[in-house]
């Protein structure tokens, strides 16, 4: 029947289509399977060739190493002897900090904490952790930068024992081979014990015993859970996380260690909560004396100079221990006498010679109670002590010390920079304005030359901190450290050259082999000779008749005082032709002092230090010459004295005039509680008692291009400057 045939035909057609679709899907599946098979095949081939290449690299770099039969574990961390410029002992660091402690002797919390945070699979891997290495590689790839290393404790020990800190493929391959050797030769407990007795825990402490005594005043045998967590947390970044430097960062890291210990089942929830509620308490250090601030700085710089220390070494520093003790005594005495009355708890002093060698550095009132170095690490507002860079930029733009400006109330946008005490002088020369630290004139000059020019001048002279290029920078609102501010004054003292600031002059082995020798090359010129002469002429006025008269002594000297808002910081940075010295007083919490200005305690401490430092040293004039017009005389302010019966200080010797130095230090004048203007002038001590003479940089050719034409502003025209 026609209908039946049609129906049958349709059915056959449908079946044929269905069979076609089935064959298509089957062929598609076979195609995908073929692609997958080929992909697996080529991946396998690539893995084989990659393995061959890796093996070749290992064989190549391994062949460059000594025979494995000659490998042996060296003695534990050596002693590091740090001495002054004349050979006196400053500190012993390294292995002398503590004895080797067996794994079974130390608190069990220490190895548990270290394994939990540094290498959780330490007891199960064979020296290399493929899982940890893969995780680190993935993290680094996803993050787009190197943040994790994936090294095991065994690899870290191998690196510390045998290798340099260089990040090269050769060193990494050798590290792996040495780790495998260590695992073959020693048990896991032996490896962990060697690691804990050698690793660096920050602040000069090598080994867990030295670190325990350094931070807690107890043996590693008696360390608690919270203390062990703090120690283990230091291993990531010993210098940065040291509780002596940053207690908050150290505690935050310790909390991460406790969490890792709980995750790995080393401690219970109850122990975890108890440790969090009773964090480690850092004991006063058994190291005392301000010279330990220097020792800490030296230890921080050491790895960059010679890498890992493999044997006993001697570090010859630039510090004069006599000057160091003088600086410490002056800071402590003034705080002891006036601290409660004036609400002052901390002080810092830095003294640098013309070659950039640091001769003394005091980082705080008492090292044993606070190892935070305020001289090199605390950033504070310098106030008017920053003004020399404003005036320097103005002189480089064509102004002179005789240029006239009108000292009067001004308004710049919404900012009105008032003079200290609200006193104004009308038309004054720039020399007078700097000596009296007149804020309105400094602000005018910053507007004339531009804040960027001031920032550039400060950075060129040696300021390293970030500076905000705004008008208020004229009054020192950007924060700096005492070390960098003092170093930035050195070119004024040495004739315009910027030397490398350094603490270390030589490193030798115990037998005398030189491992490092400081550079004696010439320093680059950063300020022209005529500008140096003008700046020294102006800043001499600060000491002679300006705000820093209490700093004056029988040596040609110059400098600048500074006081931040509400007397939170008081500064005096000054110099002679021998030494540049900066002094700071304040409080760690930034609380205001009671009317302490830069011309008070800082100038007094500077005076004491410099008089003693220059005793018996031939007088030298400041570099550069500048002669002001006869009409430019700075009339001193009447600054009330705390002791009205005391005679005024004798004026210092004129620049270039040779005067005999008094056989005994001049009596120290009492600090005056208040001044009509912010203090700005200082004197600098010389290198007394040093066995090494000061090396002055050899001047290179002039820099800065041809002499600039004087840029006359509207203020010059109106003021006649």
Strand content: 5-15%
Which class of the largest domain in CATH terms?
A: Alpha Beta
Rg, nearest Å: 34 Å
Task: Tell me the CATH topology of the largest domain.
Answer: Beta-lactamase
Most strands sheet: 5 strands, mixed
Overall outline: elongated
Task: Please indicate the count of domains.
Answer: 3
Mean residue pLDDT: 79
Q: Flag low-confidence runs.
A: 630-721
Number of helices: 21
Instruction: Please give the alpha-carbon distance between the first and last residues.
Output: 124 Å
| Helical coverage, percent range | 40-55%
Q: Strands of the largest sheet, in order across it?
A: 2-1-3-8-9
CATH architecture of the largest domain: 3-Layer(aba) Sandwich
Count of strand segments: 12
CATH superfamily of the largest domain: DD-peptidase/beta-lactamase superfamily
Content-based structural category: alpha+beta
How would you sum up this structure, described in words?
This protein is of the alpha+beta class and 721 residues long. The chain folds into three domains: 33-64; 98-287, Penicillin binding protein transpeptidase fold; 322-502 and 521-692, DD-peptidase/beta-lactamase superfamily (Beta-lactamase). It is 41% helix and 9% strand. The chain contains 21 helices and twelve strands. The chain has helices spanning 2-63, 109-118, 130-143, 153-162, 169-185, 188-196, 208-216, 225-234, 238-241, 247-263, 269-277, 291-306, 321-342, 387-396, 430-435, 439-449, 451-461, 482-494, 529-544, 601-613, 714-719; strands spanning 79-83, 89-94, 313-317, 346-353, 358-362, 404-407, 426-429, 504-509, 514-517, 558-563, 569-575, 579-586. The strands form three sheets. Strands 2-1-3-8-9 form a five-stranded mixed sheet, covered by helices on one side. Strands 5-4-12-11-10 form a five-stranded antiparallel sheet, with helices on both faces. Strands 6-7 form a two-stranded antiparallel sheet. A hairpin with a 4-residue loop joins strand 4 (346-353) and strand 5. The protein is elongated and about 95 Å long. The N and C termini lie far apart (124 Å).
């Amino acid at each position: 029947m026609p209908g039946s045939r049609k129906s049958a035909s349709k059915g056959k057609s449908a079946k044929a289509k269905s069979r076609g679709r089935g064959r298509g899907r089957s062929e598609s599946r076979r195609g995908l399977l073929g692609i997958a098979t080929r992909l697996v095949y080529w991946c396998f081939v690539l893995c084989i060739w990659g393995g061959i290449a890796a093996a070749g690299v290992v064989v190549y770099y391994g062949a460059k190493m000594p025979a494995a039969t000659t490998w042996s574990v060296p003695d534990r961390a050596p002693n590091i002897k740090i001495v002054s410029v004349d050979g006196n002992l400053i500190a012993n660091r390294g292995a002398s900090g503590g004895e080797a402690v067996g794994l079974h002797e130390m608190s069990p919390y220490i190895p548990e904490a270290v394994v939990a945070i540094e290498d959780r699979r330490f007891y199960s891997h064979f020296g290399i952790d493929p899982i940890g290495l893969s995780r680190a590689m993935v993290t680094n790839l996803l993050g787009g930068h190197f943040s994790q290393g994936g090294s095991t404790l065994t690899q870290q020990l191998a690196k510390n024992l045998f290798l340099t800190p260089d990040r090269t493929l050769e060193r990494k391959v050798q590290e792996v081979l040495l780790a495998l050797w260590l695992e073959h030769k020693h048990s896991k407990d032996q490896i962990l014990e060697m690691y804990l007795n050698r690793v660096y825990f920050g602040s000069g402490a090598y080994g867990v015993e030295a670190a325990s005594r350094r931070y807690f005043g107890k043996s590693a045998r008696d360390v608690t859970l919270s203390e062990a967590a703090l120690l283990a947390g230091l291993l990531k970044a010993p210098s940065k996380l040291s509780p002596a430097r940053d207690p908050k960062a150290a505690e935050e890291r310790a909390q991460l260690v406790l969490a890792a210990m709980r995750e790995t089942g080393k401690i219970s929830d109850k122990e975890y909560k108890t440790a969090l509620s009773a964090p480690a308490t850092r004991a006063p250090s058994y190291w005392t004396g301000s010279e330990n601030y220097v020792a800490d700085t030296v230890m921080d710089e050491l790895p960059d100079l010679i890498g890992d220390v493999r044997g006993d070494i001697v570090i010859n520093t630039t510090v004069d221990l006599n000057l160091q003790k003088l600086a410490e005594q002056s800071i402590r005495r003034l705080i002891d006498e006036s601290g409660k009355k004036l609400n002052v708890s901390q002080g810092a002093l830095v003294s640098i010679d013309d070659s950039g060698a640091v001769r003394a550095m005091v980082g705080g009132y008492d090292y044993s109670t606070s190892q935070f170095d305020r001289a090199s690490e605390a950033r504070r507002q310098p106030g008017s002590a920053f003004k020399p860079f404003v005036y320097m930029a103005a002189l480089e733009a064509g102004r002179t010390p005789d240029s006239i400006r009108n000292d009067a109330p001004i308004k710049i946008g919404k900012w009105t920079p008032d003079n200290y005490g609200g006193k104004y002088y009308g038309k004054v020369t720039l020399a007078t304005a700097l000596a009296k630290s007149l804020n309105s004139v400094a602000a005018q000059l910053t507007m004339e030359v531009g804040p960027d020019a001031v920032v550039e001048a400060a950075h060129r002279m040696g300021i390293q901190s970030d500076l905000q290029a705004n008008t208020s920078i004229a009054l020192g609102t950007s924060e700096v450290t005492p070390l960098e501010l003092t170093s930035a004054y050195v070119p004024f003292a040495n004739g315009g050259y910027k030397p490398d600031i350094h603490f270390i002059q030589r490193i030798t082995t115990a037998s005398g082999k030189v491992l490092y020798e400081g550079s004696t090359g010439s320093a680059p010129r950063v300020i022209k000779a005529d500008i140096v002469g003008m700046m020294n002429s102006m800043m001499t006025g600060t000491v002679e008749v300006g705000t820093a008269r209490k700093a004056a002594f029988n040596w040609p000297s110059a400098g600048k005082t500074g006081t931040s808002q509400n007397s939170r910081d008081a500064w005096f940075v000054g110099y002679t032709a021998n030494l540049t010295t900066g002094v700071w007083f304040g409080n760690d919490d930034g609380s205001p002092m009671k009317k302490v200005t830069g011309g008070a305690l800082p100038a007094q401490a500077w005076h004491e230090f410099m008089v003693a430092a220059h005793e018996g040293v031939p007088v030298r004039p400041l570099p550069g010459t500048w002669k002001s017009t006869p009409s430019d005389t700075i009339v001193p302010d009447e600054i009330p004295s705390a002791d009205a019966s005391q005679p005024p200080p004798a004026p210092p010797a004129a620049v270039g005039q040779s005067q005999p130095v008094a056989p005994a230090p001049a009596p120290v004048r009492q600090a005056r509680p208040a001044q009509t203007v912010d203090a700005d002038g200082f004197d600098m001590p010389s290198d007394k008692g040093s066995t090494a003479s000061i090396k002055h940089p050899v001047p290179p050719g002039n820099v800065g291009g041809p002499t600039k034409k004087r840029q006359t502003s509207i203020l010059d025209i109106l003021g006649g400057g």
